[in-house]
Design goal:
By secondary structure, the chain is mostly helical. It has 2 domains: 8-45; 52-112. 63% of the residues lie in helices and 0% in strands. It has helices at 18-31, 52-76, 81-112. Helix 2 (52-76) runs antiparallel to helix 3 (81-112).
Amino acid sequence: MCCGGLTTRCGGLYGGSRRERKRDDENTLSRAGRGGVDSPKYPELVPRPRNERQALEEELAEIRGQIAAYWEELESRSPRRTRREQLERQIREREKRLADVRARLAAIKAERG
């Protein structure tokens, strides 16, 4: 390659021949059916939740962890004023999202009876 594969003229931004790129695309398409989110490179590394309730429960656990990490950072050291304000804002935003997720989970559980 004359330019190291940095232009489309010589094989695209990532280099390689058309045959190599076509083979990579075919491999990506064949792996996409394994239940992963449509990730072009590693679909099997991002599992898809089976339903909305499970997705919300996963998000609930993730949000709790984020809030705990923000509080830990806020209490463990005395951050500068701007960082402290940023952490406080992030905690408020995560708590709002936590309330939304809990409400949606309650609605789903109420539908099921």
